[in-house]
Recover the amino acids of this structure.
């Protein structure tokens, strides 16, 4: 089973646009005043969607943003394991999975900020 569709949102306006495009109900952009959150939603076709939200990038340095991205990548990995009923993934499998998710999100962040 492939990882869920992922997208990166850097603002509330972008998050709302993504929710409309994916035809999912809107939820709160960032929960509990944090700089990062990941929302797991389903579109109308029943596909899993991971919407990774990072805010405050104007006041965070690149290392702090990278840390947030890795943190949220772990949540995407955990959700994926739950979807495939994997309760004890091998440590290398887990490390490569989180690396792959982090790399995709960081590449998208780098593309977006130029």
């Amino acid at each position: 089973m492939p990882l869920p569709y992922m997208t990166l949102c850097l603002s509330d306006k972008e998050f709302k646009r993504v929710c409309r495009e994916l035809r999912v109900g809107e939820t709160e952009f960032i929960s509990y005043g944090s700089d990062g959150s990941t929302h797991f939603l389903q579109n109308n076709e029943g596909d899993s969607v991971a919407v990774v939200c990072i805010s405050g990038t104007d006041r965070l340095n690149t290392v702090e943003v990278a840390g947030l991205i890795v943190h949220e990548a772990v949540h995407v990995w955990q959700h994926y394991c739950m979807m495939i009923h994997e309760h004890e993934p091998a440590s290398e499998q887990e490390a490569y999975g989180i690396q792959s998710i982090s790399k995709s999100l960081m590449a998208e962040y780098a593309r977006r900020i130029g």
Observations:
- The first helix runs from residue 12 to 21.
- Residues 5-113 form one domain.
